[in-house]
Structures are given as C-alpha cells and as structure tokens.
Fold these 2 entries.
Entry 1:
Amino acid sequence: MIFGLPGSAKPHTGLIAWIHGKLGLDQQLESALVYCSRLGPPHVPWLEPDVNDRMQELKAEGIDGVIVVPPGFVSDHMEVKYDLDTEAAQTAARLDMAYLRADSVGTDPSFVAGLVDAALERSAQYRARALNRQR
C-alpha cells in the first residue's frame, strides 16, 4: 500500500517498479494507492480509498499482510505516527494481518545531502540573477 497525493499515480508506479527491480522479483508486486488524510481545509472530504478500509477489503480477499510506504511524507510527524503507526497498525492487528511500515526518509544522509545540493544550486542561481541585474 502506497500513500500519496492526488495525481500521484506515476510516482506510485515508479516506486513499485524500483522496489521490484531492487528485490529482483520474478513477479510484479501487487500494490494499491491509498490515503490516510485529506488535502486541504477541514470542510474538504478525506481522500479515498482510506488505508483502514482497504486493509479490510484485502483481508476479505484473503490477503494476510501489508507493507505500508508513505512517500508523500518526508518525516515521521504526527500524521504518520498516529494514522499509520497507531490507527492502521491497530486495524491490521484487529484483522490479524501482518503489518510493516517503511521508514520515511527523515534524516537519511543521502536525502539530506540531496536537500543541501538543491539548496546550494538554487542559491547559486539566485546570486547569478542578482549579479546580472546589477550590471
């Protein structure tokens, strides 16, 4: 199960293809794009399908475990900790399903180095534009 934002089907399929390649599997992994939140102000409905509802459907289909990957979140903030680590984990336990949530990138050195590189590149672009305007 992959969590994402509306219109994020391409990152979802790209992630599954990457995982498939890294694992060297003979079969394509089955996956579903599901949500654990809403996008926008409180009057906007929650995004669907909901992770807990989908787990119930999977259990009814005979699936006995899920791996949850939240690529839309770069850190384990309260939404991830509560919606996934608490609520979804409790749903899985109630359904007697194995449940594993992949870590978010958080402070992974490669991720942080990429952020630093992007910031330095953007800063250099800004400085170059500022110098050009002064001329």
Entry 2:
Amino acid sequence: MVQIAGKYQLVETQNFDKFLVSSGVSEEKAKKINEAKPIIDVSFDGNRIKIETNLHKLTTELVLDQESEEKLFSGQSIKSVAKLVDNVITVKSVGLDGNSVGKRTMTFSDSGMETVYTTKDNIVAKRIYKRV
C-alpha cells in the first residue's frame, strides 16, 4: 500500500477558484486561495486522519467511517464521513442542515496526491500535489 502520511506541495490546480466561489467563498478570497501554493501535511494514525494546511492555518481531523465536523475556507461548518479504500480517501460532506455539500477524493501515490472536489451542483475541481 502507498504511504499516505507525508507533506505535499501544490503544483497544479484546475477550476478550484470556481469550486470555492460555488461553496460560498468570495471571488477575491477564492482568487488568493487559488494562487497560493500551500504545503499540506497529512498524518494517519490507525483510523484517524489529520490534514494541516500551512497557508490557511486550516486543520481537518477525520475518523474513518465516522461523522466528523469540519470548517471550510468560507468559515462554514460541515459534517463529513471519510472512507479509505486502498490508496484513496473519499470524503462525503453535508451541511449542518443535512443537505449534501459534495465530496472530495484524495488519491495517493509514491510521487504525490491528487484531490478532486465535486460540489452538489457537479462543479469539479482538481489539485495536484508532489510529495516533499
């Protein structure tokens, strides 16, 4: 199995600004976030996943197969359930009102991580990271 834990540097982004705006982030803030090249630190301990972003001071902690609360770039809180199959973590999220927000899929390889974000309205964004 591919090592999941590690540090990842963003190298490419596709449609992420549109994804952020559709998720409630202002266009100005979405542009700044989209242009940044953050380092993501992923730790994995048993069934716990912790994802820390250096630029946005955003930390996400998830427990596999259990509902966890997260904060988004917009400040909105959501509830998410993460599942791990082989080298892929899929996170499905709903708002606090129970309505679907979307999902993200993180696929890990020896060279990096690719994250695909999909909103409830099928707006898709992709971010590609190299392992550092």
